[in-house]
Amino acid sequence: MSDRRTAILEAAATVIARRGVRGLRVEELAEEAGVSKALIYYHFDDRAGLLRRTLAFVNNRAERYTAEQEAADPPAGPLRRLEQALLLELQDLPHVRENSTAWGELRASAVFETELRSELALASVIWIREVADQLGEVRPTAPESALAASAERLTALLEGLSARWLCGILPLPDARTAMREGIAVEVAHLARRAAEPSTEDTPSRANLD
Amino acid sequence: MSDRRTAILEAAATVIARRGVRGLRVEELAEEAGVSKALIYYHFDDRAGLLRRTLAFVNNRAERYTAEQEAADPPAGPLRRLEQALLLELQDLPHVRENSTAWGELRASAVFETELRSELALASVIWIREVADQLGEVRPTAPESALAASAERLTALLEGLSARWLCGILPLPDARTAMREGIAVEVAHLARRAAEPSTEDTPSRANLD
DNA sequence: GTCTATACTCCGATAGAC
DNA sequence: GTCTATCGGAGTATAGAC
């Protein structure tokens, strides 16, 4: 992968975070990357191809950030590690906000551009499994299915909160608090699931009506 | 409000659900509504104004649907009522899908179009309070702050799951299951909050590390 | 691989008649 | 209030030189 190519992808993430997928203009991207418009069409067939590659790039970068953070600030215990991983996306650092915004944009546009779906689905599965694994380290006796379900909910919650934060209707501290409490609630739930293995996949329903 | 105006707004929701806010072309909208392009600019100042009005329209319509559903299928008890309200958005009926898609699109585009934010924030606050109230009827002894926090999480979870469903990476039945379990988990959490009033705003943290 | 210059399409917005 | 006709700008993509 050439330097130029990477520079274009980095710039694409920046411009998408600034203007959205719909607001991305090849000309503005060219300026941001310090290259000509034509070079973008040379490296990526067209606009759609560019978006696909950008999505992959953003996903990779998010993985790198997670690894970097864990190295820089080693979490004390599995619960802290899980919190760190999930709260990582809710930070007002330039590159984090950029990544979150670009990811949200690309996912939103996938509702209408089918080409992005497979890339998106893959990243989603990996991310959910990662969270499920970390939940498993916090609650080793909880059943796999319960871990997977909790991970699904926690990652969906994160995306919902992130969307609200990014569109300005939920202050960042509130989003972080909501996420932290959401983790605590799910972890407590898993503790009960582990303690009462008799409760089947529909957890604690009978006693709620 | 004239018939034409309403017809345009209805058509706008339809076209947005079909092509996205990004894909909305005033010409296609005119065709869908059976009017001329110029009439759209007559009734709504510009594209941005049209989007603002469409957001308000979609919100109103969602409220109407909720009321209609409650009348048509009276829920048995407060928990069922809550479930019905939250699961309403996760249904593959044309008008529901249209509403959800349009709402998701408009929220996503609000990241870059500041004008939509106030309308969006207002609808969000109302919706969260509504859910908090219904949670309060399920768990009358739970503190207000806990109800509000649970409502925030549940509505964010709904939006996260809905986004995944609409962009095709999460099958609808899975989304519905996740939502139902999410409700159960939060309701169980509120039961503990009511039972142990000593536990402060950071729920069950101390015993988790 | 990278640039400059340009072709051509599409679309938002307005003018002006009825 | 509603239409037809049109303008002007913005934006994607390509041609062709280096």
From TrEMBL, chains A, B:
Q: Which domain of life is it from?
A: Bacteria
- Segments forming domain HTH tetR-type: 2-62
Q: At which residues is the DNA-binding region annotated?
A: 25-44
Instruction: Look up keyword Transcription and say if it applies.
Output: yes
Q: Extract the Pfam families matched here.
A: TetR_N (PF00440)
Protein keywords: DNA-binding, Transcription, Transcription regulation
Q: What is the protein name stated in its UniProt record?
A: TetR/AcrR family transcriptional regulator
Native organism: Streptomyces rubiginosohelvolus
